[in-house]
Amino acid sequence: MSDTQDRLRQIVSDPTLSPAQKRGYLAVEAENMLPYPALDADVVEALEARLICDMYEGHAPYRPRYVLPDYAVVLRDGSSWLELEAPRDLDEAISTLQIAYHHVPSITGMPVFLGDLDALLLPFCEGVTDDDLYKKIKLFWRYLDRVLPDAFMHANIGPSDNRVARAILRVDAELGQIAPNLTFKYDPEVSTPDILRLATANIAKCSKPQIANHPVHAATFDDRGYGIVSCYNALPLCGGSSTLTRINLKKVAESAENEQDFFDRALPCAIDLNFRLTQARIDHLYEKSGFFQSFLAQEGWINPDRFTAMYGIFAMAEAVNLLQDQAGRAGRYGFDDAANALGHRISKHLADAVAARPMRHVWQGRAMLHSQAGLSNDVDATPGVRIPYGTEPDPVSHVRALAPHHAFYGSGISEILTIDETVKQNPEALFQLCKGAFAEGFREFTANVASNDLVRVTGYMVRLSDIEKFRACEGSRINTTALGAEAAEVTGILDRKPRVVAHEQSAGYGQ
Amino acid sequence: MSNPQATVNKLLTWSSVDGPGNRLVLFLQGCNFACAACHNPYTIGVCNDCGDCLPVCEPRALTMQGGRVKFDADLCTQCDKCTDICPISASPMVRRMSVDQVIATIRDHAHFLTGITVSGGEATMQLKFLTALFAAMGEDPALSNLTRFVDTNGHLGAKGWARLMPVMDGAMLDIKALDPALHRDLTGQELDKTLRAARLLKDAGKLFELRYLLVPGVTDKPDQITTLIDFTRSLGGQTRIRLNAFQHHGVRGHALDWPPMQRAGVEAVADRLRAADTGEVATPALYL
């Protein structure tokens, strides 16, 4: 048998995968039998050396990485393609959303965005008692976790304090499910302290929701709005992101002779190569795949002009520490002011380069910088601009070391604060930390409370007990458990102080 | 203007276990109790410059200069051998901080903070600094929304409390035992001053919580818990009680012969207190 057939056979006969999970891996293998979009030799070399990386999205992009439909369209107009009338009450609205989600693709095949659920459902809540609302949301939540079991799937609520947001927070803490992931958009002018307290109290219980600094995000996007999806990705609503590519800053630093060479030659060179890779992939999506002729675009759920290109970077910590070593400076990233300032300078250089380069088929003609959370098979490379595992300083010092980066990463910055479990008795401390982080310029506040069974393994949630089961070869009904288990073994993340990790997407079967 | 100084063992800018919300915590050096069960005994004494710690300091972070022990934080590897060998339970690694310096640090972190807690050692032993710090916070418009707490053994006398109380928002008062002989045995000091402080604080509405350390077979007996309930009731109204569980972490000497307090035992005591309706009962988040 050929290697390819061997591989397919392995997938087909793996007893720990469900048929749907097998189909997903088989589809990746099939796509990768096609030739890659045309790349020049330098880009190919950089890609093979993984100086730059395509997140193993596949050889023939046929759907955007992340799609953020404006679900208000289908709730207002119904859908002629799906033969749905406009819903008239809460049951019909939830049912319409449940159907809609099935037709929204993403890189994982499952929807990554469930909408601003409170704003979407509030108009249908008139005359619905709090008790009924709670019951309906609970069933909806159970449906999402059991039918679309992918922790990249993300619901948004806020910034207003309202009945639906409260019901969702109550249900989310009660059920402690992996899916959906949840973001509360916080705006000090609009949100009440009370609902922020509820949200931070939930973090102490189940490490969810993530809290978004709404005024900062809102200013990055336009009036049509934005959504937080998957892990830490802020993207245009009614659009999304066509691709995510990323530069391994550690490898860039390794190729540089010194700090000056890094800024003058190595980094600009890597930036240019990654732009060429990104453009080739986006051109394929827009010019070859036919994706934008789908009913999603025709009915106005999405607008082809509203897809950005996420321009990712990772391993900032290793890059800075290498440059510090080269210069004979002892200070380490995350702890030393000079090392931190070097990191901030790298972020600024990247942001300026991304703002200066026009791109085809990209929202507003420019990519958006992204601090990328990692892949489950990343070794010796810390996600995004994070401080390396197990060495993080106390949460306040942690926030202050990283806050200056946040202004540069418009499409999201993956950062997780690990908090020891004593905070469970004192959620007010989390509330205060969140407010402090936002005052320092944090775009997003994400915390993991040690000892919760439900923990973030890079932005998406896994249950520690599921990873144990998966290791014992019982399989898991949740797609992302396999990624979490891989990350746990490759990166040793569960051994570190409190448990958190990073990676955003598997590289395919067995990688 | 006077700018009193304190001898500081440690300053933390993040703590979720020293009062409500996130608190900046200042651990002052020196204590007037000598508790067998102390989990940070190196904060009890005040350095007398004997120099016994110099030979054990391998990175030579400690030196004798003009008859005083000097500490260089940049050289320290935090091996703690100096505090282990110290014959008077002191630490050469302390620093002097003025009210102005502490205020500057608080201001820098204010947007992360719910308030500050001065702990120890025994915070009230450096009363002049403490009252000046709290008064300065109250007068600073950028800091006056932060709550000012002390963590205390209650040994301070009524005159001292009268000076501190007007500028303090709350106290967390440790009671090591409610039997006078046992209290003397466990702490080396008399119980009555602590009980008087509890009443003073309660009457002024500034007793944030009573803290009671459960040591198996020493302070967790049923009749002792009955005494705790009776005393709490005698204060009038409801009083929040935090039960702490004796653990070996940090402890030295004969107290290591006592077994650590287990969760089940703590929960049983908590259940009794809750049934007695003395007020909110807090139990440890962690058992090491």
Explain what you see:
The complex is a heterodimer of chains A (511) and B (288). By secondary structure, chain A is an alpha/beta fold. Chain A has a domain at 3-33. Chain A has helices spanning 3-12, 19-31, 41-48, 71-77, 90-101, 117-121, 130-147, 163-175, 193-206, 214-220, 249-254, 259-287, 295-298, 316-326, 337-356, 395-406, 427-439, 464-471, 479-491, and strands spanning 52-53, 66-68, 113-116, 154-157, 181-186, 210-213, 226-229, 233-236, 239-248, 307-314, 368-371, 417-419, 444-445, 447-449, 454-456, 461-463. In chain A, the strands form 5 sheets. In chain A, strands 1, 2, 9, 10 and 11 form a 5-stranded mixed β-sheet that branches. In chain A, β4, α8 and β5 (181-186) form a beta-alpha-beta unit. Chain A is globular. Mean pLDDT of chain A is 88; it is low at 492-507. Chain B is of the alpha/beta class. Chain B has 2 domains: 5-42 and 95-282, TIM Barrel (Alpha-Beta Barrel); 48-85, Alpha-Beta Plaits, CATH 3.30.70.20. Chain B is built from 8 helices and 11 strands. Chain B has helices at residues 81-85, 99-109, 127-139, 158-164, 180-187, 192-203, 222-234, 263-276; strands at 5-12, 23-28, 62-65, 68-71, 95-98, 115-119, 147-152, 170-175, 207-214, 241-245, 281-282. In chain B, α2 crosses α3. The radius of gyration of chain B is 19 Å and the shape is globular. Chain A binds chain B through residues 394-397, 399, 419-426, 428-433, 435-437, 439-440, and chain B through 12-17, 20-23, 109, 111-114, 282, 285-286.
